[in-house]
Amino acid sequence: MIKVDKVSKYFGGVKAVDGVSFEVGEQENLILLGTSGCGKTTTLKMINRLIEPTKGSIYIHGKNIMEQQPEILRRGIGYVLQNNGLFPHYTVAQNIAVVPNLLKWDKQKTEKRTAELMEKLHLDASYLNIYPNELSGGQQQRIGLARALVSDPPVLLMDEPFGALDNVTRSKIHAEFKALDELKRKTIIMVTHDVQEAFELGDRICLMDKGKIVQSGTPAQLLFNPVNDFVKDFLKHQRLQLEFKAIKLIDLWELLPELNKEAKASSFEAGINLWEALESFKFNNGETINISKDQNQIKTVSFEQLMTAFYQYKNHQAHE
Amino acid sequence: MNEQQQTLWQFIQQQAGKLQEQTLQHIGLTFISLCIAVLVGLPLGILIVRKKQFAGVVLGIAGVLQTIPSIALLGFMIPLLGIGPKPAIVALLLYALLPIIRNTYTGILGVDAAVKEAAVAMGMSKWQILFKVELPLAMPVIFAGIRTATVINVGVATLASLIAAGGLGEFIFGGISLNNTNMILAGAIPSALLAVIFDLLLSMVQKVSFKKLKRVVYAFPVLLIVLCLFYIIPAKSEGRLTAGFTPEFMGRQDGDLGLRSKYGLKIHTIVISDAVMYKAAFEKHLDVISGYSTDGRLKAYDLVVLDDDKHIFPPYYAAPIVRDDALKKFPDLEPTLNLLSGKINDSVMTVLNYRTDYLHQSPERVAKDFLVANKLWRPERGGNDGIVRIGSKIFGEQYILANMYSMLIKGYTDHEVSTKTGLGGTKICFDALTNNQIDFYPEYTGTGLLAILQASPKTVNEVTVNRDSTYNYVQRQFESRYQIKWLKPIGFNNAYALMMRQQQARKLGIKTISNLKQFLDKK
Ligand SMILES: Nc1ncnc2c1ncn2[C@@H]1O[C@H](COP(=O)(O)OP(=O)(O)OP(=O)(O)O)[C@@H](O)[C@H]1O
Ligand SMILES: [Mg+2]
Fold first, then answer.
1. Residue B232 has pLDDT above 70, yes or no
2. Pairing with A223, which of A245, A268, B251, B407 sits 20 to 30 Å away (CA)?
């Protein structure tokens, strides 16, 4: 879907990005992770040609982006900025309608689509006619997301989209983000320097340092098979929490007991990670939860059973 | 005493028509030039945002233009564009450019980088970004620039009257030369009010929320154009003669008022400063002007004086006028100043004026040459017995006289001298004298009679039968009213005169003012 091939960007003598290559599959969610100044933003902006690479090439759908007119290219790529970049002189509705207007949609279509997105993003329709500065940071960020999503572009680039939010708001938005069907259909590249966020939202992670990619892989690969000490050190903070986030219930499926109580507990897909499953015990009164796999297999497990399976899994990883 | 002290309100009522006309002209001048300045400055500002390598040059040039004194800028315009509204508008436009260009530039550069980036990232083209994002967001800053430019223009537009472009400056400068405070205020107060009102209105525009911005952006140009229309450009009427009179001449009995009442002269007239009047006549922008009979430019520009066959320009003496207490303080001052009395007749003065005004010799040199030739010059004594302060009005003849007096005082007494030359008009000069800012300056009996004493027409008729009766009347009145003494007349007689180009006068067969009237009536 997106292929970045030996791309470099030099600012004078500074090698902001130095020979970076990666691929992102259809509907995959790739995270560019790294410390401040390692070249994440620069890498991201080269994909919609906000920055022209010094060397290397980038393909979207197999087409070299340098061969397309930048305006046309950009209209097909959603972009969400850290401090939202909403137009202060436009109302919320006008902000969302920017790309549709560039694409010459008719008014009704734009209005319908806007209303749909507002609902999906839990934004009240009364916000449509007010100006961004009258909204909270979290609401503004959602409007920024709506603006990027409105024309349903197949690709979405996000630069620290939740960076300016407090922790509570951020985890709430994370949950919504994962639940949003719109996003499940998209190929997303997201920049963050927050490891927890990367583990929570990413299918795969590219860990960068000094303009280069140190390791790329799934959260579990980075966590359990780090290529060097840099990766290990980068992930050592709150490691247990990261492990919970890196491991999905489906990874533990074989290690969970077979017994099936059919209790009236809440149900979850096996695709969620262990962190979410454990968190759910906080909010549910029940002793157990139901986990469903492939729609027909269901297992009912308790908190202790999940933790046991987790330790077995970790042992197993360590021996591999 | 003054015949009757007119109040400001009475003056305004009496001159309401003129005041309205001048105010509208003033607004028109301000906004026509502003309109053009916006049309030029806004694109230039945008250009230098796009091509930053030009920013320094463009802002530099606009900055330098702003530092040229307004009077000088108007002066530069005359050879290029003549007199009247055209040069005035161009000069105003040049003043208005800097704030508009600069604020457009900084306004656009100041737009939040994240917002600009978002616009690019969404696929807007350069122009779309300019019109939909950069300009709307820079608008408050740009309006601030337009606001500054407006206030500058309202102020500078008062000077437009000096080159015959009308506006409230006609009252202001007329009032200064006629010693008429009401007239000055009738021009100054409305022009100050205009500045305050426009500033207020634009500051309101500047603060409107984005919601209403769109409407304002459309309404603003419309309003601007409407305001421009206030200025009905006083076109030079084809085939007819145009007169250019100084503001002072316009208000004097021995001036435009007399021309109308005694001669019944009706001529298309524009108001102009005497600094540019002669040149404008020479360059055929004007046909008839109100000059001084001893002015050197008469000779320089080949002009001819029309014979005053009905005697509305009474002959006047020039003489130094001195405060009594200065005479007491410096007992040797009076004999020293009187050294010059009777020494300079009309033709001598004209030649002296010709040398400064046309040959551009320094007044100092001309003064010294004259004193040496008349064996009056003595080297400086270098004494330090108090300082005598000399004043002079703002034209060549007065500079020459001030220099002569300065040399005489230094050579014949032990006093030091300080000169305050170039005191705008009669009012400024005379106020400086009565307020003890200067000790003496050269004045003319006619000006003393009409502008300072403001004698009634009846008195004027009685005392202007000859030079000496005028002199005696003025001397008595000044002594009793102001404790100011008229010393002995210098000799020459400087009166108003109507002048035309020699060639044109000959062609039309005009020799006297009555001839001129007949010619005008025939048309
Ligand atoms: N326009 C520019 N001109 C010069 N140097 C630049 C420019 N943009 C970025 N850099 C440099 O390139 C390097 C990478 O910058 P980049 O913005 O990609 O970092 P980042 O990983 O996004 O950091 P952060 O997490 O702080 O946003 C930095 O050293 C930065 O100083
Ligand atoms: Mg960054």
1. no
2. A268
Same domain, A233 and A264: no
Check CB contact of A104 with chain B, cutoff 8 Å.
Answer: no
Q: Are residues A25 and A158 in the same domain?
A: yes
Span from the CA of B116 to the centroid of ligand 2 (angstroms): 16
Is the per-residue pLDDT at B241 higher than 90? no
As a whole number of Å, the end-to-end CA separation of chain A is 32
Residue B523: the pLDDT is 64
Point out the domain boundary residue: A191, A217, A244.
A244
Give the ligand 1 atom nearest the CA of A9: 12
Chain-centre distance of CA B422, in angstroms?
13
Q: Are residues A257 and A182 in the same domain?
A: no
How far is residue A27's CA from residue A1's CA, in Å, rounded to a whole number? Answer: 9
| Burial class of A266 by CB neighbour count within 10 A (0 to 12, 13 to 18, 19+) | middle
Is the C-beta atom of A40 inside 6 A of ligand 1? Answer: yes
Instruction: Tell me which chain B residue has its CA closest to the CA of residue A87.
Output: B115
Domain formed by B318-494, architecture: Roll (3.10)
CATH of B242-311+497-522 given 3.30.450.20, 3.40.190.10, 3.40.50.300, 2.30.40.10: 3.40.190.10
Q: What is the mean pLDDT of residues A144-164?
A: 91
Q: Which residues surround ligand 2, an ion (CB under 5 A)?
A: A 41
Cβ contact, residue pair B122, A89, below 8 Å: no
**Residues of A in Cβ contact (< 8 Å) with B141:** none
pLDDT of residue B236: 46
Contact between B210 and A85 using a beta-carbon 8 Å cutoff = no
Average pLDDT rounded to a whole number, residues B177-192: 86
Q: Which ligand is nearest to the CA of A33?
A: 1
State which residues form the domain around A274.
Answer: 248-319
Using a CB-CB cut-off of 8 Å, the residues of chain A touching B118 are: 79, 81, 84-87
- For the CA of A35, the nearest atom of ligand 1: 25
Which tokens sit at B495?
């009166």
Per-residue model confidence as pLDDT tens digits over A26-52: 999 999 999 999 999 999 999 999 999
Pairing of strands A204-209, A212-217: antiparallel
| Alpha carbon separation from B297 to A251, B282, B381 (Å, rounded) | 106, 10, 35
Binary contact (A88, B114; C-beta < 8 A): no
Domain regions of chain B by residue span = 8-233, 242-311+497-522, 318-494
CATH 3.30.420.40 fits B8-233, yes or no: no
Query: What's the mean pLDDT when you consider all of chain A?
Result: 90
Give the pLDDT confidence score for residue A291 in this predicted structure. Answer: 87
Give the model confidence (pLDDT) of B87-125 as tens digits: 888 999 999 999 999 999 999 999 999 999 999 999 999
Q: Which of A185, A214, A244 is the last residue of a domain?
A: A244
B422 pLDDT higher than 90: no
Query: What is the C-alpha separation between B270 and B523, in angstroms, rounded?
Result: 19
What's the gap in Å between A82 CA and the centre of ligand 2?
Answer: 8
Q: Which of the four pLDDT bands, split at 50, 70 and 90, describes residue B293?
A: confident
Query: Given the CA of residue A45, which atom of ligand 1 is nearest to it?
Result: 18
Question: What domain count does chain A have?
Answer: 2
Give per-residue burial for A216-251: e unless 16+ CB within 10 Å, then b.
bbbbbbbbbebeeeebeebbeeeeeebbbbbbbbeb
A164 in the same domain as A134: yes
Question: How many Cβ atoms are within 10 Å of B68's Cβ, its own excluded?
Answer: 15
